[in-house]
Structure formats: structure tokens, C-alpha cells
Amino acid sequence: MIKLAIDAMGGDFAPKEIVKGVNIALKQFSDLELVLFGDENEIKKYLEANDRVKIVHAESKLDMGEKDPVRAIRTNKELSIVKAFKSVADGECSGAVTAGPTQGVIVASHLIIRRIKGMKRVALCPELPMFAGKKRLLLDVGANTEIKSLHMLQQAQFASIYASKVLGVEKPLVGLLNIGTEPGKGRELDLEVYELLTQDPNINFYGNVEPKELLTTECDILITDGFSGNLVMKTMEGTAKALGMALKEEISKTLGGKIGYLFMKKNLANFKNRLNPNEIGGAVIFGVDGVVVKAHGSSNAYAFSQAIKQARLAVKGDIINKMKENLVLDNE
Amino acid sequence: MIKLAIDAMGGDFAPKEIVKGVNIALKQFSDLELVLFGDENEIKKYLEANDRVKIVHAESKLDMGEKDPVRAIRTNKELSIVKAFKSVADGECSGAVTAGPTQGVIVASHLIIRRIKGMKRVALCPELPMFAGKKRLLLDVGANTEIKSLHMLQQAQFASIYASKVLGVEKPLVGLLNIGTEPGKGRELDLEVYELLTQDPNINFYGNVEPKELLTTECDILITDGFSGNLVMKTMEGTAKALGMALKEEISKTLGGKIGYLFMKKNLANFKNRLNPNEIGGAVIFGVDGVVVKAHGSSNAYAFSQAIKQARLAVKGDIINKMKENLVLDNE
Q1: Pick from A179, A261, A263: which is nearest to B143 by CB?
Q2: Which of B236, B241, B248 should we substitute to test contact with A (largest number of A Cβ atoms within 10 Å)?
Q3: CB contact residues (below 8 A), chain B span 130-169, against chain A
Q4: Residue A103, burial from CB neighbour count under 10 angstroms (0-12, 13-18, 19+)
Q5: Using an 8 Å Cβ cutoff, are B211 and B234 in contact?
Q6: Do B211 and A228 touch (CB under 8 A)?
Q7: Predicted complex ipTM
Q8: How would DSSP label each residue in A260-306?
Q9: Interior CA angle at A7 toward A5 and A12, to 5°?
């Protein structure tokens, strides 16, 4: 059995969509056992009876707009996310899934589950939307603003293990996001990371990748520091938003456009869906001593069930122990 | 009269499209005097007679794929770009326009026209495609990988002067590209730049802008370091490319899509055009002691004439002298 902790109160549509996602996942996977943390009465409204699920009541929840998650998590032991993550720290559950606010999830991972010994940084790693037949991992987007090359190497190792176990890619190809494709491009940091990635026998290193290939590269994993990755992620989002608006604008400008729209309404809906967060997997926190999947804040039941599926595969693939065996230690 | 040096041999379609762009610009602006540098015989094939244009022969040209532009520019005085930029350095022309390779243009600006005294870094600043009724400047995208906060302040000052004189924006609003909107977000560098931008009375500072607002923000200028800006620019490009492919894919999947396409062919072409480099202005080199506009390598005649128009406005607006008056000096 794979036992996961579910933060039933995190996310814009919690607990309803979260609990419905739990119902879906339980039906889909018979090896899954789930513990839901949150408001027992609220959860019961939506939870379908199943002997592989139980509820642990939690008095309060981390607000999606919480300005000071560090304080909230440190001082309030009754938060559903705190209780859920504590069950992972205690070894009662093997992983946790939450749709709570990103910074709160990172902070709670740090403070409650804690880093794997020897890993100096925690990274937030989303799956990019599928393009050209491939889902790609981008990391770090969690905004580690100061980072060392060795930490980026560790993250690349983690991502390689994750991609092989969860995405089922045999020898995941790792690219270093950079401003040019030639070796020697980039900052001091990038040059060092390039060297480390080249030397690591466990990493299938492709070389530098410019973000104009972000969604078309043959790489499975794109690695950069947390500041750059966060900018790249948000630029992708911003460009997609602006282009969506522009497409709508151009179509509605003429009668032909409006008629054409009626014919291809479904096609355009599918196009829009290509970037729908509900169709894209959650982000994984790399570097803490337990599996943590952060589903999108706006997750519906289906999206949350997908995040549970991700966590299940990560636990099944034993990624945390595999990472520990692989770990290159810092000499600091 | 505004006298500009034109590198007639730079760009994928040089000299033909460059010279045709010159023809357009000369017709459009009666205060324009142009000196074309390049292969005299080739240029003559396309150049329309005009007493405000002359040709200075140059034996060779900087290859679009030149791997070592520094060496090429240092050793070959017969390159059209070298001769064109030299005429700016000598004060014979007030600005230069080229569609040559980006790194070559930056190197030539540095080595031949040279930096404005007191400006420590040169920045490459493109106009972003117009969205939500606005053209925005993004800088630096030229990949200054190591930069100090004061240099970014200088670039913001330069961009403010440029936006007011060339884009005609009265008090251009400057945003700092960052991973969060709250003050205090980002790296040490960003915190320092935030402070400097806040204090500068000549800068209309908006605060932090996340790149998910890149094409919709009310800011006229978005500033970041050269590494980040280059990644952001290329991510925009990559996302647009992938979305374009996805749209095509989805439309061609069904008969309805194909019929709809016939009705909105023109609308979709216009949509595609929104990101067409020929519709977007060239990039300007900020920080050298003369106006330099770098048109897209793939410029057609119209695009190149637009780049000439940009250079004309920059010279007319006296942006170099305005920048010199404004310059905050480094105490190094």
C-alpha cells in the first residue's frame, strides 16, 4: 500500500474539489491509502465511503493569500498543511499532496519535512505543458535567488531520477537553460554547472538550451537557478495570456472571423486547454526528505487526482532513497 | 538635416532589402540624409536616385554567422559595419542603422563608437510587440551577465529618455522585472536597483513587475540584467512558436477546423503578424556615444525603413546629449 497525506483545505476550491479528487484517485488505484487533513464536517460532505481513506481533523487552514507563511506555519500547529506534512515527517505517510499557496508549501516542506541531509537547497519543479509529444520538467522555479553550482547538480540528479520513475523516461535528457547554445555561454554559475553536468556519469547531459526551444527541445529536463526559472515560467504564462487575447481580438474583428469561429469552436477550446493548468501536472518539491506534490491552486477534482497520481508514482519509484544513494556531498 | 550611416551589407537579405528600405525612408522623411556603406555595384542595383544619399564603398561585410566578431571587427577595416560605425565615431554621421548579427553590432559599438564616458555597460534594448495598445521596451537583453545596480539605473535613465523622445510617451513608466510584485522580492541586485529607481527624481518608477504581465503591464519600460532579459525575450519567442504550432495542429484535426480556417484565414494571418519581427521595431544599443539601431537580421525593406525611422527620432530627440546631462556617475 502507498499511503499519502492529503491537505484537504489547500487550494481555491478546497475542500470540495480536493475531496472529489481523492474519490477519483481511490477508485483509480487500488494500492492507494489516503489520510485527509482538514475540517472533518466539511470533508465528510464530499467524501465517498472507502476503507482506504481516513480523516484527521485540523482546526484551521493556511490562507491562500497568507503574507507571512513562515510565521503561520511556525505558530499554528492546527493548520491542515502542518498536520499533513507532520505525518510525512513522522513516517506515518510516505508523501503529501496539497494545492495550498506555493511559498507556504515550500516553507512547510523546509520546516516540517526538512531537507535531505546533504542537500542544501529545495527546488520547485513543475511539469511544462505537453508540446511536441513531450512533457518537460523545468527547475528551479521556486526562486532560490542565491545558489551554488553543486546545488544545481543535485537538483539535476533529483530531476533525472524523478523523470525516470514518474514520467517513465528511460534516460532523461538534461539541458541547461542558457543565453546561447555554445559551451562557454552564460554566467560564472552556468559555466560551473555545465562542467559538473558534463562530468556526472548518472546524468544524460545535452548541453545548453536557449528558451526559444523551451517547449520544443528534445530535453526532458531544463535546469536553471530559481530566479531565472521563475522568470521563464512567468514569461511563458504572460506570453500565452497575451497571445490568447490577441487571437480573440483578431477573430472578432471581421464577420469571416466570427463565422470561422463557429466552425472551429471546439478546436480553439482544445487549443486553450493545451495550457490549462488542470491538464498539467503539479509541481514537485525536490530536496526534502519525503515526496511533496504541490497541485495548482486552481485545481479541480481531476487536476488534484492527477497530482495524487504523481505522488503515488514518486513513492512507488522510491525516488527519495534513490536520490540519497546518488547524492554528491558538499564539502562546505 | 539628420545624417545617418547605413550598413548596407548587414542582414539576411542585404543589400537588396536594406537599400529598398533606404529608398522608402528617403521618400518618407525629407530631413534625412543617408550614407550607405557596402559594395557599391551591388547597392547601385537597387538604389533610387536621390541627392540626399551617397555610397561609400566597403570591400567586405561581417558574416551573419561570424563566430569571432571581435577579431573580425578588430582586424578588418573594410567591413561595411566598421566603416559605417567609424563615420559615427568621427562625427560625420549622427547615428547608424544595421541589420547585422547582434553580437557583432554590440562589439562594433563598443570598439568603434565607444561607450559614453561614465557609462560602464552597454545594453541591447528591443521594442516588444504591441499588445494592449502599447509598445514596451525590454532591457537589457544583450546578456551583460555581471552587472551592478548603478549600471541598471543608468540603463533605466537611458530608456526613459529614449521612450519619451522616440516612442513619444510623456512620462514613461519603468518597471523592474522580478519574481514577485512586493518590494523586497528578488536578488540582492534587484533590491539595490529597486532602491535606486525609487530615489531617482527623473524616473517614473512603477515597482516590481512579474513577467506574467510582460505584454499587458501599464509600464513602458521593463528593466532587468542582461542574462535574465535575454532568457525572458527568448522564452517569449519559444512560447509563441510552440503556441503557433499547437494552434495549427488543433485546427487541422477536424473538418470543422479546416472549414473555419477558410473563413478566418485573414484573421489568423493578422494574428501571426502580431509577433512578426518585421512589424516590430529594431533594438537600440544604449550606452554608446552615438545612436545605433540594430534592425532584425531578417528585415525586409519595410522593417529596415522602420529602423531608420527609429534612429531618426533618436537623433532628433538628441538622446545621447540628454543622457550625458542625466548621467549619475560611478565612484569606482
Answers
A1: A179
A2: B236
A3: 131-132, 143, 145-146
A4: middle
A5: no
A6: no
A7: 0.89
A8: HHHHHHHHHHHHHHTT-GGGS--EEEESBSSEEEE--TT--HHHHHH
A9: 150
Q: What is the DSSP string of A17-37?
A: HHHHHHHHHHHH-TTEEEEEE
Place of cell 548518472: A202
Contacts A188 to B, Cβ<8 Å = 145-146
Report the largest interatomic distance among the alpha carbons of chain A, rounded to a whole angstrom: 67
Cβ distance A257 to B264 less than 8 Å, yes or no, reads yes
Give the strands of the sheet with A53-57, arranged side by side: A53-57, A32-38, A2-7, A95-98, A291-294, A283-286, A123-125
- Give the whole-angstrom CA distance, residue B22 versus residue B46: 10
Query: Tens place of pLDDT for every residue, chain A, 332 residues?
Result: 999 999 999 999 999 999 999 999 999 999 999 999 999 999 999 999 999 999 999 999 998 888 899 999 999 999 999 999 999 999 999 999 999 998 899 999 999 999 998 888 889 999 898 888 888 999 999 867 778 999 999 999 999 999 998 889 999 999 999 999 989 899 999 999 999 999 999 999 999 999 999 999 999 999 999 999 999 999 998 998 899 888 998 999 999 889 988 888 898 888 888 877 666 668 999 999 999 999 999 899 999 999 999 999 999 999 999 888 877 665 54
Please write the tens of the pLDDT for every residue from B137-181: 999 998 677 789 999 999 999 999 999 988 899 999 999 999 999
- Name the β-bridge partners of B221: B137, B174
What residues have CB less than 8 Å from B201, skipping those under 6 apart? none
Closest alpha carbon to B59 in B74, B37, B44: B37
CA distances A116 to A158, A286, B64, B195, B213, Å, are 11, 9, 49, 37, 36
pTM: 0.90
- Please give the domain boundaries of chain A with CATH numbers for all domains: 1-119+287-332 (3.40.718.10), 127-279 (3.40.718.10)
CA distance B282 to B294: 5
How far is residue B39 from each of residues B43, B93, B149, B193, B206, measured CA to CA in Å? 6, 19, 43, 46, 48
Distance from CA of B147 to the nearest CA of A (A): 11
Please give the angle made by the CA atoms of A46, A49 and A55, to the nearest 5 degrees. 70
**CA–CA dist B142, B105 (Å, integer):** 11
DSSP class of residue B173 equals E
Contact A235 B247 (CB under 8 A): no
Look at A256 and B267 and tell me if their CB atoms are within 8 Å.
yes
What angle do the packed helices A255-273 and B255-263 form, to 10 degrees?
A: 140
B221, B175 contact by CB (below 8 A): yes
Give ∠ CA A140-A144-A147 in degrees, rounded to 5.
95
H or E segment at B60? none
Q: Let me know: does B292 contact B96? Beta carbons within 8 Å.
A: yes
